[in-house]
From TrEMBL, chain B:
This is Ferredoxin-like protein in nif region. It comes from the Bacteria. Residues 1-30 form the 4Fe-4S ferredoxin-type domain. Keywords: 4Fe-4S, Electron transport, Iron, Iron-sulfur, Metal-binding, Nitrogen fixation, Transport.
Length: 493, 64
């Protein structure tokens, strides 16, 4: 395990980063593609510059960069059937949930505290817990305060779109270059099953009229953002039997209006959350159903498949949430921003990224266009940095990749309960993990014991730690080659 | 002629505060409170009581 890998671990102290950088510069470059960009071939450079460090807009960036949401906007102007504003719990992780609401000044202090502690931080988002455009004064005050102190932090918001057209000009002025709109329908009759009411121009609307207004405002807002060159991500909640097939239509509409990304997320409808859908027994989709719909949407608006449906006060890399480390009572009254750690980390990532991109390219070339007409679904335990560096028993999620003659691509993630607690594995938990891994052929991790390995085999899932600490794609390329008898085109990283 | 907020049901989302045309709603202690001397039930401003129309929790902004 090289010093570089340690440096990209989430808790790397500055000293090890410095040591690593010194080592890096003296030792020259490990890969011939030094400084090569990870930019996809089909993307224009200006857009890549905007998204390359944004974990929610670039699947590649989400291995390296962290976002934080500040919960300054609790007020909302619509009601969705998958949302209950009364319910909150520190152990829940889903949109609209927060532990504490913040004033813009408290948010400023929190962002600085996080920026000093979490070098991966690149993005500040306001995702409610209500609507960032409706609760506009607090959103704007927060962005103004934070930008003054940390000018290079990217700003983004999440909105239902109803109040969006009123603020597009201000968003452009504030350099907010990423906006997420939640669009669940483009047909008001479907909207009536999702939105019981909206509050618009001083009155409450219900039924078809509510959905009609919401739909028109969403489309107007999207068109206005596109006209100003602001990148848009469209979130859609997949509700089986309500809008699942309809999301194909939504995808078409948003693509026509210039949406950059479409993120289809599964409905979360636990009855304990007290939402309308939770109480009426409306089920969410299974992981494989979600994947099937996402596969159907390929070729339309580009899909985001790495969303973790995080809380409105989440902090950290997409697969983790360090929000509980940064509650108000742990943040001093006076904080000063120190850019050193973020800068050091960025330099390290820039180097690692070039190397990773080259390794990924080689692995993809190995599997691409082969005669072997096989598909492998691989689940990876990772702590970030694009490597297989998490123990099976410590994983709280597995990242899912698909290898086929089309290439190697990230297709989703599976949340699991941590199997190993204090050195002991719980059989009941393992059953849950195996259930979550439905449809997976192989699990890759840094370490796995014989006992869980055997249980997985009995369920038809192979697991190996043979590729521990390799780049994810390199390992999958090698695995695919071994599986289908191909020649490896690259040295392993 | 005034509305009140059922404190136990209020989520402290603040929407009523900035929709209120008379500035009758303020955050006090743990919840939002309507000042009965300032509340006009939106008479002369809107057809419906704004706090009740925007409140996400049913039957929480109600006649006092």
């Amino acid at each position: 395990m090289s010093a570089l890998m340690i440096s990209l671990d989430s808790l790397a102290p500055v000293s090890s980063m410095d040591a690593m950088l010194a080592k890096e510069t003296s030792g020259g470059c490990a890969s011939s593609s030094c400084g090569s960009s990870a930019k996809p071939d089909d993307m224009d450079l200006a857009i890549w510059e905007k998204i390359k460090d944004h974990p929610c807009y670039s699947e590649e960036a989400h291995h390296y960069f962290a976002r934080m949401h500040v919960a300054v906007a609790p007020a909302c102007n619509i009601q969705c059937n998958y949302c209950n504003r009364k319910y909150d719990c520190a152990n829940e992780s889903r949109p609209g949930v927060v532990s504490e609401k913040l004033t813009p000044d408290q948010a400023r202090r929190k962002v600085i505290a996080v920026a000093n502690e979490v070098p991966q931080l690149s993005v500040l988002g306001i995702a409610g817990p209500g609507d960032a455009c409706y609760d506009w004064r607090k959103t704007k005050a927060t962005f103004d305060d934070v930008s003054r102190e940390i000018p290079d932090i990217k700003l983004c918001i999440s909105t239902n779109g109803l109040a969006l057209p009123d603020h597009v000009d201000e968003l452009a002025e504030m350099n907010v270059d990423h906006v997420t709109i939640t669009i669940n329908m483009v047909a008001p009759e479907i909207g009536t099953k999702i939105y019981p009411w909206i509050f618009y121009q001083n009155r409450r609307y219900t039924g078809l009229e509510a959905s009609q207004i919401l739909h028109e405002r969403q489309m107007l807002g999207l068109e206005m953002l596109t006209a100003r060159g602001i990148l848009t991500k469209i979130n859609s909640v997949m509700i089986p039997g309500v809008n699942d097939e309809h999301l194909i239509e939504v995808n078409k509409w948003v693509k026509e209006r210039g949406a950059f990304l479409h993120n289809v997320m599964p409905l979360i409808s636990d009855p304990a959350h007290g939402t309308y859908f939770g109480l009426t027994g409306q089920r969410g989709p299974k992981a494989m159903e979600l994947k099937a719909l996402q596969d159907k949407l390929e070729g339309g608006a580009k899909l985001m498949r790495h969303c973790r449906q995080c809380r409105a006060d989440a902090v950290g890399l997409l697969g983790e949430d360090r929000g509980q480390e940064f509650t108000l009572d742990q943040i001093p009254d006076e904080v000063a921003y120190d850019p050193a750690r973020r800068e050091t980390y960025r330099e390290a990532v820039a180097r690692e990224r070039g190397d990773h991109a080259a390794a990924k390219q080689a692995a993809v070339t190995t599997v691409k266009g082969t005669e072997a007409n096989g598909t492998l679904l691989v689940a990876v335990a990772t702590k970030g940095g694009g490597r297989i560096n998490e123990h099976f028993g410590h994983a709280r999620e597995f990242q899912v990749y698909e290898a086929s003659p089309k290439g190697i691509s990230f297709v989703g993630h599976r949340k699991v309960e941590q199997y190993c607690m204090g050195g002991f594995g719980e059989d009941a938990t393992l059953d849950g993990v195996i259930e979550a891994l439905e449809g997976i052929d192989v699990v890759l991790c840094a370490r796995i014991g014989d006992c869980p390995k055997d249980s997985l085999i009995a369920a038809g899932i192979r697991a190996t730690d043979a590729y521990g600490f390799d780049y994810i794609e390199t390992a999958i390329g090698a695995l695919y080659a071994a599986e289908f008898g191909l020649e490896l085109l690259a040295e392993s990283a | 002629m005034a509305f009140k907020i059922i404190a136990s049901q209020c989520t402290q989302c603040s929407a009523c505060e900035f929709e209120c045309p008379t500035g009758a709603i303020k955050f006090k202690g743990e919840t939002y409170v309507i000042d009965p001397n300032k509340c006009t039930e939106c008479d002369g401003y809107f057809d419906t009581q704004q706090c009740a129309a925007v409140c996400p929790v049913p039957k929480t902004c109600v006649p006092a």
